[in-house]
């Protein structure tokens, strides 16, 4: 095997695999190190609900044959109310999707090494020049990219990762059959992706039902270990117990059964990224982290981060005399904040506001959403202050004051900037 490449990428998730696709398409020599074995890939990392939208499918050339179900609407539920918005989407078979990215990258010229666990950077004169994997094996590159997610073995040793435990979100999902998809008294979930805000089910987070055809769906929940989790969560319950409680108490699941082998677990860090690069190095995807904090969407964001890293690497490598120093790779962070997550600080503020509200406030929110026009809702989702203000009530002032104090304590500028 070759031991020198233009770019070495650790991790074959959506971020790493997309970065490899883009670099290989530009005729760069790129190798991807993946911990899992090829014949089981992605068994351990098959952890995403994989709900996405046509913009992602089109932007990255994703074929229809990795889609489990195309959807027509997005549904938001609270304990006693719901809101339906017409919005085309797609629920992917995440394993098929990841395998497609690998196959397509290989066709474009990327090399993949499975059973290859990246362990540490190889340093020369204070700069990273390669990666050790599987203990004593080495591979060298002009640029190294860490796409391993929260493990971040390279980023952490370079002092680039700043993931914080207090902002850690964890989730679990089952695939079920026998669900009453159009249960009287609930929203019609046929061809829909549904998110439910209900602290009795997912304290400090949300739960979901993503229809996958017929009487089947992906069903799961996620919570952030925040104040609402401390208030409503049960330390005696695991996340599995919280999900089982929902399955036992929601009549839509009265006759439902788990599909064997279809259980997914995942985690994400809901926070602003810190430093994302240094000399000859970039961190992408969930290593950064890269996830929409408000709705938990990560696939599109991770793939965008991979694309921005590929463009940044190209900006250096296409010029033979331009070294990939931290200064020359600064474009990656510029592109990340401009293209990948342009309103990250604002969406983090909105996330705190949403997930710290109580169940009664969630019912009021659904009533408000049903009153307003689609443009107002779209603008609120984008972080427009005037649109958000229309969804606020006098009773929200104590929570707004709490959030304002938090940002002042952290020395932040206006969270609505």
Automatic annotation (TrEMBL):
Pfam families: FAD_binding_3. PANTHER family: DIGERANYLGERANYLGLYCEROPHOSPHOLIPID REDUCTASE, GERANYLGERANYL DIPHOSPHATE REDUCTASE. Residues 5-305 form the FAD-binding domain. Signal peptide: none annotated. One of its GO terms (molecular function) is FAD binding. InterPro entries: Dggglyphlred_Halo, FAD-bd, FAD/NAD-bd_sf, Geranylgeranyl_reductase. It comes from the Archaea. This is FAD dependent oxidoreductase.
């Amino acid at each position: 095997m070759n031991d020198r490449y233009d770019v070495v990428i650790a991790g074959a998730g959506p971020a790493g695999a997309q970065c490899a696709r883009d670099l290989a398409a530009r005729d760069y020599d790129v190798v991807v190190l993946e911990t899992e074995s090829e014949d089981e890939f992605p068994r351990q990392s098959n952890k995403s609900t994989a709900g996405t939208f046509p913009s992602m499918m089109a932007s990255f050339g994703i074929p229809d044959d990795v889609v489990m179900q195309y959807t027509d609407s997005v549904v938001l539920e609270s304990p006693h109310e719901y809101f339906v918005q017409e919005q085309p989407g797609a629920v992917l078979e995440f394993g098929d999707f990841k395998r497609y990215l690998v196959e397509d990258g290989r066709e474009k010229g990327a090399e993949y090494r499975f059973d290859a666990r990246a362990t540490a950077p190889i340093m020369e004169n204070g700069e990273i020049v390669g990666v050790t994997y599987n203990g004593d094996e080495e591979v060298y590159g002009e640029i190294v990219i860490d796409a391993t997610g929260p493990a971040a073995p390279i980023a952490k040793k370079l002092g680039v990762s700043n993931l914080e435990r207090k902002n850690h979100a964890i989730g679990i999902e089952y695939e079920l059959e026998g669900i009453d998809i159009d249960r009287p008294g609930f929203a019609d979930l046929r061809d829909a992706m549904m998110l439910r805000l209900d602290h009795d089910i997912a304290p400090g987070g949300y739960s979901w039902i993503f229809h996958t055809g017929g009487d089947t769906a992906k069903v799961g929940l996620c919570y952030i270990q925040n104040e609402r989790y401390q208030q409503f969560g049960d330390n005696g319950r695991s996340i599995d117990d919280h999900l089982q409680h929902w399955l036992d108490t929601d009549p839509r699941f009265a006759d439902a059964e788990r599909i064997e082998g279809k259980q997914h677990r995942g985690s994400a860090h809901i926070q602003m990224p810190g430093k994302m690069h240094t000399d000859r190095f970039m961190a992408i995807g969930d290593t950064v982290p890269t996830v929409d904090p408000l709705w938990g969407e990560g696939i599109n964001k991770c793939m965008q981060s991979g694309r921005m890293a590929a463009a940044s690497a190209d900006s250096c490598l296409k010029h033979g005399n331009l070294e990939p120093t931290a200064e020359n790779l600064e474009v990656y962070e510029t592109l990340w904040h401009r293209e990948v997550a342009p309103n990250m600080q604002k969406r983090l503020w909105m996330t705190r506001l949403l997930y710290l509200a109580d169940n009664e406030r969630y019912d009021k929110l659904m009533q408000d959403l049903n009153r307003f026009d689609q443009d107002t809702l779209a603008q609120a989702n984008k972080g427009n202050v005037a649109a958000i203000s229309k969804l606020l009530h006098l009773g929200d002032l104590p929570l707004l004051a709490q959030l304002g104090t938090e940002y002042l304590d952290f020395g932040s500028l206006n969270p609505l900037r």
